[in-house]
Amino acid sequence: MRGFLNTPDSSLYSGVLARYGAWMDLPAHTRPVTLLEGNTPLIPMPRLAQELGGGFELFVKFEGMNPTGSFKDRGMTAAISEAFGRGVHTVICASTGNTAASAAAYAARAQMRAIVIIPEGKVAAGKLAGAVAYGAQVIQIQGSFDDALSLVVEISERHPIALVNSLNPYRLEGQKTAAFEIVDALGSAPDWLCLPVGNAGNITSYWMGFRQDHARRSSGLPRILGVQAEGAAPLVLGHPVEHPETVATAIRIGKPARGEQALEAAEQSGGRIIAVSDAEILAMQRRLAGEGVWVEPASAAGLAGLARQLREGKMRLSELRGRRVVAVCTGHGLKDPEIIAHNMPAPLRLPARMDALEEAILGVSR
Ligand SMILES: *Cc1c(COP(=O)(O)O)cnc(C)c1O
């Protein structure tokens, strides 16, 4: 790897390539483009663990704390660094939103042109705004995410345009660094890892990362619980979903590009892939926010799945006793503020008078 484009190569200023580049399979021409992604907090959630039955340790890996607000930045630094080092000037992706914002930001950093193709409707405002703010050319097609993905794959085969969807192997190389960070923080792998599954790049990356880590330093392997939304659950149903529907727009995907690998990760790890309802996702989003962690709806799916498994007795508290569970919260709540406006009460409106304020806060009137 050649020198860093925009950061001094010191541990104080380091993204995932600087920290874990030696463990990543990237070509020699790779030239790092970074926004100092990664190194996200692993937040203990003792109150939620207690509510779910207690006796185990629960942590949230809060990936919403990455530079553009989602885990996509880990993979994007790798994919853009490779394309940049190869001399490519244009990158393209299909996106439900977060990939678009991330690709746009890293392309801007490297002064490359970014084109993002989004499906009609249902892309959260905060994500679209991000892609536009970072200067990407945003094109909305009259079709689904899956249609958008087919188009970008074809155009990247015809022209010198780099595809930065998670079909790009370097995306996975970057995303697997989250597994290394979890092991670094806990001292060994957790017993369970819960995470949402959309196009299935992330579950594939975590499993790669944990296996590689285990091969190098015997850190152990987690069982993986992958969670889809009921209206977009091709891996649970066993067939593609033509018209996926869910409030969790980041996982509104009917034909996961890495579906086979996701099923393998679940099976090889002794875990499983399940589905939860939108109501369960939104309830868990509120529950997490009630403890100070605001995530976008898709990001609450992993924990909603854990809660459901425990409720239905498919995972037993006795099995979890003394164990450690990490839930990956993939994106920040700020990405999708409308969902809160739609599902939560509007603020109380009052005249600008002390008596009205006292009555509203203290329940007394003078
Ligand atoms: C992309 C994304 C997902 C889904 O990840 P996949 O790799 O497509 O399975 C989940 N949550 C958020 C916030 C995302 O941006």
TrEMBL record:
Gene Ontology biological-process annotations: isoleucine biosynthetic process; L-serine catabolic process; L-threonine catabolic process; threonine biosynthetic process
Residues involved in pyridoxal 5'-phosphate binding: N98, G198, N199, A200, G201, N202, T330
Pathway involvement of the protein, from the record: Amino-acid biosynthesis; L-threonine biosynthesis; L-threonine from L-aspartate: step 5/5
InterPro entries linked to this entry: Ser/Thr_Dehydratase, Ser/Thr_deHydtase_PyrdxlP-BS, Thr_synthase-like, Thr_Synthase_bac/arc, TrpB-like_PALP, TrpB-like_PALP_sf
Cofactor(s) required, per the database record: pyridoxal 5'-phosphate
Gene Ontology terms for molecular function: L-serine ammonia-lyase activity; pyridoxal phosphate binding; threonine deaminase activity; threonine synthase activity
PROSITE patterns: DEHYDRATASE_SER_THR
PTM sites of type N6-(pyridoxal phosphate)lysine: K72
UniProt family annotation: Belongs to the threonine synthase family.
Role of this protein: Catalyzes the gamma-elimination of phosphate from L-phosphohomoserine and the beta-addition of water to produce L-threonine.
Listed name of the protein: Threonine synthase
Species: Anaerolinea thermophila (strain DSM 14523 / JCM 11388 / NBRC 100420 / UNI-1)
